[in-house]
Amino acid sequence: MPPAGERPSLVRAMFASIAPRYDQMNRLMTLGQDGAWRREVVRRAALAAGHRVLDLGTGTGDIALEALRQAPEVLAVGADFTPEMMRVGRSRAGGARVRWVVADALHLPFARGIFEAVTSGYLLRNVADLPQALGEQHRVLSTEGRVVCLDTTPPPRNVLRPFIRFHLHVMIPLVGRVITGSSAAYTYLPDSTEAFHSAEKVADRLRVVGFREVGFARRMLGTMAIHWGVK
Q: Sorting pLDDT into bands at 50, 70 and 90, what band is 139?
């Protein structure tokens, strides 16, 4: 794992390099389950007509586009610090309906309390300062606004752990090299997953910055978690 101070530039460069194949790799790595998780993220955001939703670390806009599919009358803002990823998103069907913004998750360029929901997919383990990132999400949410986060989580210590670690550390880098030409990006992914907080600790972090009604659900044999909370 790179030092925290170097992580933002390295992560940005890494995602820029894999942008054209990012969505394809997500489908392969999750055995096609990531679409269902993103749909769940949007459902838990409880969007209604006229709501404003910020999809942070939007990448190619999967969650932002899903928000518009489930609630066509919302304003969906997709924010990411990698323009190359958002460029791919703009070219997708429906991409013109998303408002794309280049933004740093640690210093959001939005006023306090303007969004009814903030969503993210695979953002939290990539930020250099998790409390700061969660604090910024809390700041831009309106009262009663909802945060919903999808991310990887360290695999549980059970009889399946060796098989899960083989998938993470052998299969994912191998497939990543074949599909994207970059094994480094897909070596970083399992390493950052195992170095990240447990689902319980992420829930604690959400409570510390001020969220209430915090909960989470594990997915994919405990290697993914969806967290939520209310301001």
A: very high
